[in-house]
Every structure is written in C-alpha cells, then in structure tokens.
Hints:
Blueprint: H1 15-28, E1 39-40, E2 44-46, E3 49-51, H2 53-61, H3 68-71, E4 74-75, H4 82-87
Parallel strand pairs: 1-4
Antiparallel strand pairs: 2-3
Helix pairs in contact: 1-2
Amino acid sequence: MSGYFITGTDTGVGKTIVTLAMMELLKRRGFEVAGMKPVASGCDSGAAGLRNSDAEQIMQACSSGLPYSQVNPYAFEPAIAPHIAAAR
Length: 88
C-alpha cells in the first residue's frame, strides 16, 4: 500500500482539485483508491451532522464506500483556522 499527502499553504490553492485528479488517474490505472480530508473547518450543519463539501467530493471519489466519518474525522463549523476551531 502506498500513500500520498497533499498539502498547501492556504485555502483555495487547489489541494482538493489535485487530490480528486490523482484519485481519478489512479482509478483509471486500475488502483483502488481512498482519500481523506482529516480536518475541515467551515463545515455546514445539517441532518447528517457537520459536513464539508470538499470532503464529500473526496468521499464520492473513493473506490469503496467509506463513511463520511472516516474521510473527514474532524469537522468544525466555524470558518476559521482548524487549530483555533478545535480549541473552542
């Protein structure tokens, strides 16, 4: 099993776009893929709990049906830096 960690220095720099593109490329080459967004802030609250749209896209791109809680285990509602949101 191999893994990749996609990181960026700011919001909106393309981490999710790169992640989804890599997942699609690997699936086309016959690999089983799973992705995650370990921490997300600015999540929307709904009937299913706190959800992040990027994490939902990553969840849908996974080869197998991972539950949202595995794709995004730490979700915070305030749209602030995750370490500050976690401290609240």
